[in-house]
Design a protein that fits this description.
CATH topology of the largest domain in chain A: Rossmann fold
Order of helices and strands of chain A: EHEHEHEHHEEHEEHEEEHEEHEHHH
Shape of chain A: globular
Oligomer: homodimer
Number of helices of chain A: 12
Structural class of chain A: alpha/beta
Strand content of chain A: 15-25%
């Protein structure tokens, strides 16, 4: 019998890729979305919608959760709100979306489905400014944005419920994820997607602060493999893992690779906007050693290859909508 | 001109003592309470109600906050919900009371009153289980209760708003506070108050786990002096301080002192109730060295003296209600 997954926020960037990955791995997938006919949902789930059990509802709706969790083997609580800069302008909304929603899920699991595995989609932004690279999981966390604070909160909930109630969960602190489908103008959805979309229009990629800041970029399909391991390997339970890419790349280097892959666009320096500067963490490169050691996971896709794959899909999309 | 304080949750244990202390120190005090005629409010504010500017309203009500903060020099956000065990049975309520309320206040301050000083009433429960005593502020925090998670969250908000917006705040991680007015049957309000009330009835103080667990008890009037320093000394801003008592005392030793002071009651061992065991941290003794070094504060009242003072008030109350 195939394993049954419940994906909350299934039409999000990460959620939609995970649905695809789980279907390919033989899972039965229930996908919760707010509105199955919304254009972005239709677009994100194109090609897999008929293989999913699509359910409409709010991920924070207790009745919906209680009913759905009892009926699955693993739940992926990906519904939430992205973006550090954005979190500063609507902090209480961010709390509801990224904090309270996780607590509601954990309450549902401990009451109705203690056998169900889950995993928290954490963020490298939990760490805040770091002094030593690469960053290991023992590094103290001191977030510098409301988003980072709420990701730390969500993780605290998951670890607490694992310890006190035996809820079978763990946390992945995701670096900069990228891949097809992230091509939104709003940088809250990831700088890689923004840069690809900008270059595709032949416009200028703006690098703040010289573009020297290091990041590690992790390809979304690599991430999906790790999320599957996180809800299937017993070693994961109660623990925290960096979900990091294959080492550090400067923003400038990433931008140059984007120009290379897309074949258009240009690069220019730009001053830091105040709102982005306020939540900037400085260099970040996570160590993926623990996930390798404990879960046998390694990010397989290089930035060059990942950007090429992402561009290939984006180009097809752009051709289709022209 | 006298300084103007706004105390949220002014009828709480800590809030009512702070109102008294601030009045004695020459402050003008606005006291926000939910219902000025509720019996516990009348009792807690007995003797000072006429010296306060008493305002009715919810501490989470944006309109109320925006209006009141613009009109004061310091705000003490003490409205909240006590009790680690209790937080586990109503975690979302605890989030609203101890987390969201702090975020709402900070938003109000950054928008309407950036000149106003404030201070977060944190808790030693933010640390969770600790390995080394006494605990210093650099110790990583890993709370083992929803209450502890939300106290850590509140502190994160305060430090973030200090860093990003220049809100003039700091955090005090309070050990076990005790003093007059804490004599409720519910242990959420402090084990010292519970023990005194129990002994006064000539009943048995129940010690879980042999009573060997170390705690540090801090007398409420010592705490009030520290809270005043926290909103007046510039060195406090953006920093975190333990608000600890004068060293470690075992639960049994504290209970024996209670019997001594009260002159009635008895002690018996009892097994840990499951709900209390789940959130138990083990020994805790905080170091008050940083508050001494930076703010010049030291807890002055010994446990013996503090219990005697507390018992003197409780005895008078009991005589009055007989």
């Amino acid at each position: 019998m195939s394993r049954r997954a419940l994906v909350l926020g299934a039409a999000g960037f990460l959620g939609s890729h995970l649905c695809r990955h789980l279907l390919e791995s033989g899972w039965t997938v229930t996908a919760l979305v707010r509105d199955a006919r919304a254009p972005y949902v239709v677009r994100r789930l194109a090609g897999i919608a008929h293989d999913l059990r699509l359910v409409e509802g709010g991920a924070g709706d207790e009745g919906v959760l209680d009913r759905l969790v009892a009926d699955c083997d693993a739940v992926f609580p990906f519904a939430g709100r992205s973006g550090a800069t954005r979190s500063m302008t609507a902090p209480l909304l961010d709390l509801a979306a990224n904090g309270a929603s996780q607590l509601a899920l954990l309450e549902s699991l401990r009451r109705h489905a203690p056998h169900v595995r889950t995993v928290f989609p954490g963020s490298r932004l939990q760490y805040g400014r770091v002094l030593e690279l690469p960053v290991v999981e023992e590094t103290p966390t001191a977030p510098v944005s409301v988003y980072g604070v709420h990701k730390a909160l969500g993780e605290s909930y998951h670890l607490l419920y694992a310890r006190v109630y035996g809820v079978q969960t763990c946390s992945l602190r995701i670096s900069n994820p990228y891949g097809p489908g992230q091509d939104r103008a709003d940088q809250a959805f990831g700088v890689v997607g923004t840069f690809l979309a900008t270059a595709a229009r032949g416009e200028t990629l703006r690098l703040y602060g010289g573009g020297h800041q290091l990041r590690d970029y992790v390809y979304v399909r690599d991430l999906c493999r790790l999320f599957e391991l996180a809800v299937t390997r017993p070693e994961a339970i109660g623990d925290v893992f960096n979900a990091s890419g294959r080492g550090g790349t400067s923003l400038r280097e990433m931008a140059e690779t984007v120009l290379d892959v897309v074949g258009s666009g240009s690069i220019a320096d730009a001053p830091w906007p105040d709102d982005a500067a306020a939540v900037e963490t400085g260099d970040y490169v996570g160590s993926a050693a623990k996930a390798a050691r404990v879960l046998g996971w390694q990010p397989a896709v290089s930035l060059q290859d990942g950007l090429a794959l992402t561009w290939a899909e984006l180009r097809t999309d752009l051709a289709g909508t022209r």
